């Protein structure tokens, strides 16, 4: 019996590995928990012929419900249940991507929808948790902490992390659906598309525009990277060099901008009844965020110089 269970989990874990685009940038918590249990839900979704978008919507409903329950931080029981729902939403967030890869339904728009749903859940969390403080001594002044903590330290940083994570997948794993396109490359919403498709297309354009404004990697750098990355003579060398150069900093991006970091801190401080301390931690976190942004900028500039030097050497030879 024990051997059978062990074999099942071993086979399941191997299957989890097969659904991952690139293990280099997977967060350890995701590998051990979210991806592991997410695959069960992905299989369930496949059995019921569900689409990844339908799983995402269920994740949204569960996550927003959990976020709303943080209004009742004076009850640790309700807060624990809120944490359970928020965690489940995170597992389903992994499941929709796994289902997409299992059924061949991965799309560029799907990547954006995932990010949109994450943002919607966290907005519900912030509003509900802050509403609890509005009734107390802090009153509306809680938003003096919440606005910079939620928008700059959380949402903007998560979008920057999503950009560099997608770039890593695009160049190292060759995942075309992970490419962050330039704004002018994005398709406009067609009149023939349904309301929701047009809605998400417009949001995607706004989201992508904001990403390019926030990151330090320029479009010129992207053009040079692509020229080398997809040249038959240089692509393998570029892929290995890109991986070796930028893999270390992806850990720090995940730490300061990853969903798991914010979700864990929110649940921890909310169960303590001190969401306000979480907001203060987010503001303090702006210091390491600035350091990682600068490190990324310098790494890109050095990487760019090396590529240009390589080009100049090849042309002279």
UniProtKB/TrEMBL annotation:
Q: Which residues cross the membrane?
A: 47-70, 76-95, 116-134, 140-161, 249-271, 277-295
InterPro entries, per database record? CDP-OH_P_trans, CDP-OH_PTrfase_TM_dom, CDP_ALCOHOL_P_TRANSF_CS
What the entry lists under Pfam families is as follows:
CDP-OH_P_transf (PF01066)
* Gene Ontology biological-process entries: phospholipid biosynthetic process
Q: Name one GO cellular component term.
A: membrane
Superkingdom classification of source:
Bacteria
Q: Which UniProt keywords apply?
A: Membrane, Transferase, Transmembrane, Transmembrane helix
Could you state a single Gene Ontology molecular function term? phosphotransferase activity, for other substituted phosphate groups
The record's comment on protein family reads: Belongs to the CDP-alcohol phosphatidyltransferase class-I family.
Its name, as the record gives it, is CDP-alcohol phosphatidyltransferase
> Mind giving the lineage of the organism this protein is from?
Bacteria, Pseudomonadati, Bacteroidota, Cytophagia, Cytophagales
């Amino acid at each position: 019996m024990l051997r059978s269970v062990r074999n099942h989990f071993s086979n399941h874990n191997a299957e989890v590995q097969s659904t991952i685009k690139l293990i280099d940038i997977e967060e350890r918590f995701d590998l051990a928990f979210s991806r592991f249990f997410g695959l069960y839900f992905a299989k369930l979704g496949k059995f019921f012929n569900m689409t990844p978008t339908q799983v995402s919507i269920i994740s949204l409903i569960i996550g927003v419900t959990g976020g709303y329950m943080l209004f009742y931080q004076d009850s640790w029981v309700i807060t624990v249940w809120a944490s359970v729902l928020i965690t489940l939403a995170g597992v389903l967030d992994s499941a929709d991507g796994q289902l997409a890869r299992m059924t061949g339904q991965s799309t560029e728009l799907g990547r954006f929808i995932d990010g949109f749903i994450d943002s919607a859940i966290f907005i519900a969390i912030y509003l509900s948790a802050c509403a609890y403080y509005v009734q107390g001594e802090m009153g509306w002044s809680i938003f003096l902490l919440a606005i910079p903590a939620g928008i700059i330290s959380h949402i903007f940083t998560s979008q920057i992390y999503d950009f560099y994570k997608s770039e890593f997948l695009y160049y190292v794993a060759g995942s075309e659906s992970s490419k962050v396109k330039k704004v002018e490359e994005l398709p406009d919403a067609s009149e023939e598309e349904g309301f929701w498709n047009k809605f998400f297309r417009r949001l995607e354009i706004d989201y992508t525009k904001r990403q390019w404004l926030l990151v330090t990697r320029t479009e010129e750098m992207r053009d040079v990277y692509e020229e080398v990355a997809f040249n038959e003579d240089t692509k393998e060398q570029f892929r290995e060099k890109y991986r070796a150069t930028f893999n270390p900093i992806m850990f720090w991006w995940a730490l300061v901008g990853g969903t798991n970091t914010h979700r864990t801190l929110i649940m921890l401080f909310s169960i303590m009844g001190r969401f306000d301390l979480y907001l203060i931690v987010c503001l303090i976190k702006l210091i390491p965020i600035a350091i990682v942004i600068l490190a990324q900028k310098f790494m890109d500039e050095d990487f760019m110089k090396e590529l240009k030097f390589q080009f100049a050497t090849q042309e002279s030879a």
